[in-house]
Amino acid sequence: VYMEETTTTNAAAPTAEGGVKPESALAFTERTSNVRKIATTLPVTDELFQDAPAMRDYINARLETFMLLAEEDQLIDGSGVSPELTGMLNHAGIQTQAQGTDPIPDAIFRAITKVQVGSFLEADGVIFNPLDWQEVRLLRTTDGIYIWGSPAEAGPARIWGLPVVATTAMPENTVIVAAFGTAMQIFRRSGIEFAVSSEHADFFIRNQLMNRAEE
Question: Average pLDDT in the 95-104 region?
């Protein structure tokens, strides 16, 4: 259970000495978001862990990566239909900004302005699909000069001063502009936990192990 600010009334104004101070208002609506589990398994052989002890750490690292990618996908585009989370793109009431005939940077700036005007908050980040960020990174002037810096350099992963996160979890041709730091929060019941067992199907007699990761 959490509270969402749904109505904001800013009545702050100059006030004469002895005058009645104007009263602002905030209205909150109670929301409920179910805790969801993200999990995966991976079978390996006993021999793999015995012959290459470092493989256990490698397998755990790979499973952690799989988990983080799945979590990222859920936070961005989860449908909200059990057992999925409700991702940012599927929350009711979010603002949208069509690109239309605008270049991508222009549409992003318009979205930044919408965040500022619509919520009194400052956008502090942008999420791109890597293919869409590629289009921005390769923008050039009519003289052929790369706007986002020379190909010899890494170039700034920023747009209009905001940091850019490029992830495949973001649907192509869609961008999220938001005040992530001030308007969003992730609640976790537990972090990623790892477990290994041979007690699965006929794994014991086959010298196999099932690795499990979940959060």
Answer: 96
